[in-house]
Design a protein that fits this description.
Elements lengths: L12 H11 L3 E2 L1 E6 L5 E6 L2 E5 L4 E7 L3 H9 L1 E6 L5 H6 L10 H5 L3 E2 L8 E2 L4 E13 L2 E13 L4 E2 L2 E2 L1 H4 L3 E2 L5 E2 L15
Antiparallel strand pairs: 1-13, 2-3, 2-6, 4-5, 5-10, 6-9, 7-8, 9-10, 11-12, 13-14
């Protein structure tokens, strides 16, 4: 096997990061809604997103640069992550537009909102699930800031539940890949964990 080794150099950071993002796939999408201190709603997709802690329950998303999601989550102390699903693909993508802070993306893109249960920022009404968060802390890495949110509530559409468990085939989440590529859930592999028997 022949391998190409690409070393990081600040002068060529753009192509290097593009390659890195094409390797770390698929990436779940945090469709983050926030409110500014003036009450303007913001909605934007962030593809650097995951669960950071089980107990306490913490999720994280990364702001590339200092955008509205970061500013609002820090200044107001709250944010909501709505599931980005296949049915809302075009709207998810459209909210990635760099609108100015005074523009409400819900209105600009035509996304219906609904009140959250425990925090002030609204949820995406058409999303099958939402994670309501209180901003816990941030960690800065030069051009990126990781935002950690303590989860205070989950709002899940009854239609995507299998008993008490969210069913991934009903939720139909989107993921980001490299370049301008997105993906859907494909065939599922199922296997129980193998216990160690020493």
């Amino acid at each position: 096997m022949s391998r190409r080794v690409v070393e990081y150099e600040e002068a060529t950071a753009g192509p290097f990061v593009a390659t890195l993002k094409a390797l770390v796939v698929p990436r779940p999408i945090a469709w983050v809604s926030t409110l500014s201190i003036d009450g303007v709603a913001n909605l934007a997709p962030h593809s650097f997103f995951t669960v950071a802690s089980q107990l306490p329950p913490i999720v994280q998303f990364t702001s590339i640069g200092r955008n509205d999601s970061l500013r609002n989550a820090v200044e107001t102390g709250e944010f909501v992550v709505s599931l980005a699903n296949r049915e809302m693909f075009e709207q998810v993508n459209a909210t990635g537009t760099n609108y100015p802070p005074e523009v409400d993306e819900f209105e600009a893109v035509g996304v219906e909102s609904e009140p959250s249960a425990m925090v002030a920022p609204p949820r995406v009404a058409g999303s099958p699930a939402a994670i309501e968060c209180v901003t816990e802390s941030t960690v800065e890495f030069e051009h990126s800031v990781v935002v950690f949110g303590r989860v205070v509530a989950l709002a899940i559409d009854e239609d995507v539940l299998d008993g008490d468990h969210p069913d991934i085939e009903r939720m139909k989440p989107l993921a980001r890949l490299g370049r301008d590529q997105w993906s859907e859930i494909g065939p599922l592999l199922r296997a129980p964990r193998i216990p160690y028997e020493g």
